[in-house]
Each structure stands twice: as C-alpha cells, then as structure tokens.
Batch of 3 targets.
Target 1
Amino acid sequence: MKFGAFVPQGWRLDLMQIPAGPQQYQAMKKCALRAEKAGYTSLWLYDHFHTVPDPLPEACFEVWTATSALAEATSTIRLGQMCGCNIYRPPTLLAKITANLDVISNGRLEVGLGAGWYEHECVAYGYPFEKPAVRIGQLDEAAQILHGLWTQDTFQFEGKHYRVGVGQVKNYRGQQVQLSGAYNHPKPVQKPHPPLWIAGSGEQLTLRTVARYADYSNFMGSLAQVQKKNAVLDEHCQREGRNPADIKRSVNINVFLGSDQELEKLLADCGRNPSDIEGLKAMLYPRERQALVDQLGALRDQANVDTVIVYFPDAASGESLERFAEQIAPALRSSE
C-alpha cells in the first residue's frame, strides 16, 4: 500500500493561522518537503478557488501554479491533484499544462480529473454549471483529448462538447488553411503518458468513463461503499473490454493524530462554528493506532486499495503527517 499526503493550500481553512501572503506558500512548501522526507509516495492538492464550508476572504492557492512551484521545490516525491475540475480549464489547455509539468518535474506528475461538483464556486467564477450528464460527457471527451494530445504528434477530435485541431482558419501569414491537428510539445516524460486518475463514483456514467480511460479510480467512503463501487467499476471494465486489474484503486481519508485538546483548539482556531467542527470530526479516521491500521488494512485486503491519500488538518503546523509516516504506514507496508 502506498501513501500520499495533501498539502495545506487554504481550501479547508488550513492556512488561516499563518500570515497572509508569501509565508502561506512557504508553509505549503515546508509541508511538501516534510512529506518527501517522511517517505510519502506522493503530494496532492485540491482544485478549488473558494474556502469551505463557507467562502471567506482567505487564501486558497490555485492548483496548477502551486503544483509547478512544488515541482521545483521537491526532487523525488510525485505530484497530483485530487482532483482537477474539468470545468475550469479546456482539456487542450490542461494537456499543455500537464505535459509541461511532467517535463518540469522529470516525470513525477499524476493527473487527477473529475467532472466538477461545486456549483457555488463555478458560478461565482463565471463558469457554466451544467447538469450531471453534460458534465460527465465533457469529462469523457476530456480524457480522450488528454490521451491524444499527450501521445500523438498532431491531434484532431470532434465530439459533442469539444472540437480540437479541426477547421479552416487563417495562419500566421494570413492565408486560409485547413487545420491538420493541434500540436502539444514538449511531450510528457512518462510513457505512454502520465497516470490519469479519474475521481467520482457515479455508477452509470462516471465509472464507465473510469473504465474506459483511467489508470486509477478514486473514491471516498466506508469499506462497504468502496467495495460496491469497485464491483460496479469491474462490470464496466468487462463491458468495455478492459481488464479491471489495469485500474488501480485509491481512496481519500482524513486523519488527525493528536490529543482531543489539540484537535479542539486547531478546529476552533480555524474559525469554524460548532456544527462544522463536529462535521469535520465525524470525517476523521480512528486516532487509535491499531484501529487505524486495521481499517486501512481492510481497504487494502478487501477492496484492493493500492493508494491512500491522507488529508491532515494540522499539516501546516502539527505532527500528524510525521506520526502517520512513522507509526501507521510501516505496519501496512510490512505486510504486503
């Protein structure tokens, strides 16, 4: 079992206690270096613009600019997004960003993508928020475009939602020409392309897209819920003619390894109201070592979970990140 760690970036109010501006990025960078030193396989960032549970005038670092900076700051740990929102960037732009970042990081990029779900944020930033079937249809086409632009010298695509490298246009000299495709160079370092993680658990549409194009799935939920989604995904794989074993399974979890008093102070200092504090506490995995090891071991052994991506509420200033790496991860790696 492999482990990734989320870097604090403000979305979940985890940079509020740090002076606004460059010091907040320095906290992100410091956390990334701590995770690399502690032996985590990967670093992860969210793709959001507003804080939650309420939008506040607080820092929320954009995923791709932050990932680019952390690619330069680190040297061995892999870099991912959980998950990129397909609504926010045309897939052609995303293909260019990700190919460049794979080169910048020397082949350390993981590409996470989802259909998008947060209507408040989408509309606030001027993006159309379509019904689920449309958003998932766009996700399906985006995955095809990413694969094409990552791997082909020139690429053309005509779908219901996107059109790439096709049409009659004026060239640089003002001449009318027929497009012969879109170019995306430099190509990614990783071959055939960076791993594509598709997040989401919609059983009829999203998991069908996962079965078609993803290298990793990503879920949240209980053991029984993950097992159910895996079974549905396996059925889609069989219908699509793909071996279910070709898609590695991952989950996101929330962990705090400290005292009750430390947790209460941390959450109160972040400005949450009592009901939001209770909601976040309910999302946490067990803090007792053996219970946490047992729960993660069950995900590994009974739900084929390959990678666990951990969000630590105290990642910017506490010790949960190191405690997990020292006390929890070895027990799950040693029994592989």
Note: DSSP finds twelve helices and 15 strands in the chain.
Target 2
Amino acid sequence: MTATADLLTRDIAHLIHPLHEEPLQRNARVWVKGDGAILTDADGREYIDGLAGLWNVTAGHGRTELAEAMREQAAELAYVSGYAGSSNPRAIELAERLSALCYRSINRFFFTSGGGEATDSSIKMARAYWKLRGRPNKTKVISRINGYHGVTLAAMSATGLSRYWPLFEPLVPGFSHIPAPDPYRYEAPPGESQGVAAANELERAILREGADTVAMFIAEPVQGAGGVIVPPDDYFPRIREICDRYDVLLVADEVITGFGRTGRLFALEHWGVEPDIMQFAKAITSGYFPFGGIGISDRVAEALDEAGEPWMHAYTYSAHPVGCAVALRTLRIIEDERFPEQAAAKGDELLARLEIALADHPHVGNIRGKGLMCAVELVEDRATKRSFPADHGIGTAVLRAALDRGLVSRVKADTYVLAPPMVITSAQIERLVQILAEAIRAVLD
C-alpha cells in the first residue's frame, strides 16, 4: 500500500470534508509539503498550486517568518478575549495598520476567523446601522448570481451559486440576487453599456423590494469562485450612485481580491469607488492562520458609538492575538515584496501566455482576468457561446487531466480558474500554461 493509499483509508474512515463527496475522496491527493508555488503529495510528486490553496496562500508556502510570528505570539500571549472591556496590543496594532492601508473612509475594524463569518458580520452591522438610525425595516440583502460570500446560513443565502443551496434550504428570508456584470455573457439593451445596464439591475431590484426595506448590496469587486468575472469599468461607479440614491450600504467583499490580488491593494481602487463596509480574509494571513474581518466607514462607526447599547454580535476568536500577529507580519511581506505590482505584472504574463497557447482553440470561449486572477471558459460553440451540457462534465475532466499533469486548481462548471501565489516564477507560469493547454487538448481534441 502506498503512503497515499494508507492515509486515504484513514481519512475516509474519520473525516468529513467541505463539499463532501466520498467517491471523489477515494482518489484524492494528500498534501504533505509546500514551498513557494509548489505542493508535494504523500507519494513525493510535485504540483504547481494554481489557486494558492483556496485563493489565500498569496505569500506562498513555507514562509518561516509567518510560522515564527505565530510561535512568538503564542509563547507570549496565545489568547485573550476580544469582547468590549478587553483588548491586546496586536489587535490594536493591526487595526491601526489597516486604517492606514484601507479606503480613506474606513478606519474601524472587527476581526473574525474567516470570510463567511465576515459576511455574517457585515449583514448584522448593516441591519444594526439602519435600526440605530431609526429605519428598522431596512433589513434586506441584495447580492449577485455567481457571487460567493461563504456558506454559513446567512452567507450562503447571499451566495449566488445555487448548487450550495438545495440540501440546506430554505434560505434565510430577505435575500435576493441580480445578474452578474459578465462582459462575456451579459446582454445589455441596445444603446446602453454593459456596465451601466448590469448596475441598473440593482436599481430595479431595490425598487422591486422597496427602498425602505433594503439594507445593503454585497459584491465581490471581481467575482472569484463564480468564474473570475471582471466587471466593465463603468459598473461600480454606477453601483455607488444607486446605493447613495436609495440609502443602501455598499459592501465590498474583498476576501479574495484584497491585499494585492488584482494589481491594486484593494480592488475597488481600480474604479475610484469606496464602500461603506469592506470584508476581508484569506490573504491577510496568507492562509497561515484562519483570520478575517470587516472594516466599516466612519458614518457606520459613529452610529455604533452613539447607540448607548451594545452591538450584540459576539465572537470568541475576534481579535485573536496570534491571528493578529500573523496578519501584521503578512502585511509587511505584502508591502516589502510589492504584491500589487507583482500581481499586475505576473497577471499580464499569465494572460498573455494563455492567449498564445489557447486563443485559437475552437472550444476556448473566453480568456479573462484582473491581476493575478484569471480564468479560461470552455464552450461547445464559440460563435454562439453555447455551453457544453452539464452532464458532459467537461470542466471536471479538464481539472482531472491538469491534476494528472501536475497542476492543482478548481473549476466553476466549465471555467478553469487560476490565482497562484504571488511568488510564482515566470518559469512556473510558463509550465502552468503548458499543462492547462495539454489538459484542454487531451479532453477536447
């Protein structure tokens, strides 16, 4: 029995996995080591990590300085409550640092253990804000089809990927979804730009629900798990206008895009827009410690400070000193190694190589990206953009073929997504593209 076979036998006997599917797990890889953009499995085979873990290991695997930050903080103060009446130096330092880095109007922060809890925190913050401002009926949440915001019950209700719903429905009441601003597939009315037309879907939804009932609109600046959907440049400026007009809080889900992934430190900077609430996770600790949070605008913070009553959102691991220490050290790496600039340059290289290798393939419908966040969408017919029937399993077959050749990532239906660590080398980018092109041809030629 190989090392992997033995470990998988024990795994199947005792573990339940996210997206649990036992037949799939029987052929899983068991990862035992990481170094930069490379993962090694239990049988000693190396793979390029094409998705930086799950979009999060931006600094790459094997960063001993992050392990040391954990060790030092845990030895000094491993845990203390973050509830009102208690604090710790690392949490204070991290909040100060984020205030200096984030959107100008965002200066106060609440810390969680990840992105899903950040979404729940945003929802509870938005509802509390409107109640404290004397508008208690503003409770509804609008998000987008193909948006991903986590899978706690409220976050799952905001998530616009319907495959996550059936086993757990009904969804939480008060959630609705509008079409995504997908330049490849969204059809705007004649004479209207795609970006403005897609943004106007929000206005129609607000009017349909009733503006006095809508608390917030939540959106990823670039949709990640939904297939790396990069909006037209006029989309978010129009979204900001609509939110202002109808008194709806704009929540930017920067869990994937934050801290450099798209070529800017935060992705709404590309379009000169500031949110009322932003949420983050993943890259803030490069995946080395489960950590996330939300930042709130000064006007939202003012409502909390003037409330005269507690914001009854409790969380044992908020402001965890070890997580804050790792986040602070990660932010130093992001700054010292210029991650936004690296993402912009390496993303351009990745897109250019994908175009050269795949643009003429009859089943490659769209190659897209923003910074080091890219996707290749496969279609049955390029001329009509017709997708393959779902039961063909094309995306899954390409995923498997790429894995067999040494590339790890994920697919959304028949869209292969890529977001490797910032530290990926040019040679590794070249090899990544070669593997993906070989995998696509093996399945579709």
Note: The first helix runs from residue 3 to 14.
Target 3
Amino acid sequence: MSVRYLSCGDTAFSVEFGNEISPQINGQVMALHAAVGRAKAAGALGGLVETVPSMRSLMVCYDPLSTTRAELQPQIDALIARGLPADAAGRTVRIPCCYDGEEFAPDLAEVAERTGKTSEQVIAEHLTSPFKVYVLGFMPGLAYIAGLEPSLTLPRRPQPRVRVPRSSVAIAMDMTTIYPFESPGGWHLIGRTPLWMFDKRREQPVFLAPGDSLVFERIDRARFDAIASEVEAGKLDWSLFYSDWSELITP
C-alpha cells in the first residue's frame, strides 16, 4: 500500500492514502485509526496523543517531549504492513427524519424540480442511499455523510441562509448532513430529525462518529414531536438508535 507522510508542525504528522475521496480510501483511513487505537490501548506507541481521521488521511498527534515522528512513523508503517481491512464493520445508526412541510423541508420541492423528480421520489431515494460518516468538521457534531443517491447531486445553494435550524437534514454534492446547532448554511434543507447531534448533557456529547453507517427512517410530525420532547427533557435512551429507534415511542 502506497502512503505519503507529511509533517504538521512539531507535534503531528499526517498519513495520506490518496488524492481522491472514495469509500475505499476512507475505509483505509478508518482502519488505521482503529489499528492505532488498539495498539495504544495495548501499551504501544508511547507518546501518542490521538489520531484524527479525515476524508483521505489520518493525522497522528504526539507529545514532542515523549516521542518524535522518527520514532512513531516506523510503528505506523508496521501497522499498515499488517493489512488494513477497508470494509471493517462499524456501527449502524438509525436517524428518524420528518420530511413534511415547509418548516422542516423548505427546499424539498426545489430539489425535486431541479432533479426531475417528485418530492416523494426525492424522499425515497434519500431513505435508501447507503450513507456513511466520513469525517466530522465545521462545528462540533457536524458529520459529512457520503453516499447520496447520484441523481440527487446538486451544488450548494448560491445564497446561503443566515440561520439554519438545529437538526435540519440537508444535502449538497454527493453528501447529506445534519446541522448540530442553529447556524449559517448553504445546503438544501429536505427534512429534520428530532435528535440532537451534539448534547453536552450526554457522556459522549457528539452523537455520530467517522465510520458510522446511517439509515434514515421516515416519521410523521406526531412522532417527531414525541421524540423531540424526550430529547428536550434529557430522558432519551440514545443507545436505542443503534438498534431499533421505534421502540422509543409507542405509536
């Protein structure tokens, strides 16, 4: 496997797996991320602080008072030489999403018109897209989620919104995302989930992680409101969204 190492100051270096964004390359990044984590947990890689995955590379951060790139890089090479299965199983996360109404889906009709589909077809294809979280960025908890049905590919909006509501589900290019906070944004809003992608009350505030596979599940407004009330009250069992979220609310 051909990789490239680049220095990132005196406390980090990156391991690049290629120049394109693809499931295979991102899979190798995540496999190395996992392998480094296992090695560190076993007591190896002294001085390593953390690894940070991106679309096509892994940043290796270290304590310069304890180790150097010259010491760590051969150990990373050895992990790569053992093989990096790019199709390693990860978590599957279910995301309930309401696609109804102008409040939640203000751009749905426009997306349908521009892609030559009906709104229901857009929803159906978003629901069946094989989504995977590639990386987190821009703000805490915002995931760049690749795998959008190719026929839904659109550029960002020419005029970004000043305010996008928290938990809005949006698409742009070949990706979808979920806004963790109210913020400016230029993606096309086609739905909203009652879940919060970032909640400081949780033991792990950030809900999604690189490598997660996502399945969107359609809900109506009544179900949305019921789940949202659980979230607001801090009473939601978040672990259920890694299995069957429908157990949370009795229809």
Note: Residues 92-239 form a domain with the Cyclophilin fold (CATH 2.40.100.10).
